[in-house]
Amino acid sequence: MLGLRKEFDFENGVAVGNDHVTIAMLKGKPSPRTIDHVSFHLPNMRTLRKALQHLKRHKVKVEDPGNEIGPESPDSPHMGLWFHDPDGYRWELSVQNGRKV
After folding, report:
1. d(Cα 39, Cα 11) in Å, to the nearest integer?
2. Cα dist. 83→2, 4, 56, 92 in Å?
3. CA torsion 38→42→46→48, rounded to 10°?
């Protein structure tokens, strides 16, 4: 119903998503320890940089301070940033193929 498809598997988990969102889940009861992260795909790097500034204005602690935007993994073409909400859930904002822009 949501148009989600299996994106990839990883150790003890699976990621599902569509062109706009990726949800990575671990086995277990839902909690910040079992939901690895939720990723929202932004349209371009300009929007990602604006989102980072918005998070900083609201004093959200972003992972990797000083180098907040980076590849999703070492060889990934996708660029993103990560942070945790007050309940401990991990969120990602990313641009698919953003490294190529």
Report:
1. 18
2. 25, 23, 11, 7
3. -10
Backbone angles phi, psi at 79, to 5 degrees: -110, 145
Beta-bridge mates of residue 37: 24
- Residue found by looking up tokens 């990621």 in the block: 15
Q: Which range has the worst mean pLDDT, 7-11, 16-20, 41-45, 80-84?
A: 16-20
d(CA 73, CA 35): 18
Is residue 2 over pLDDT 60? no
Structure tokens at 16: 């599902």
- Please answer whether residues 38 and 48 qualify as being in contact, where contact means their C-beta atoms are separated by less than 8 angstroms: no
For residue 96, what are its two tokens? 């698919």
Say if residues 31 and 87 touch (Cβ distance below 8 Å). Answer: no
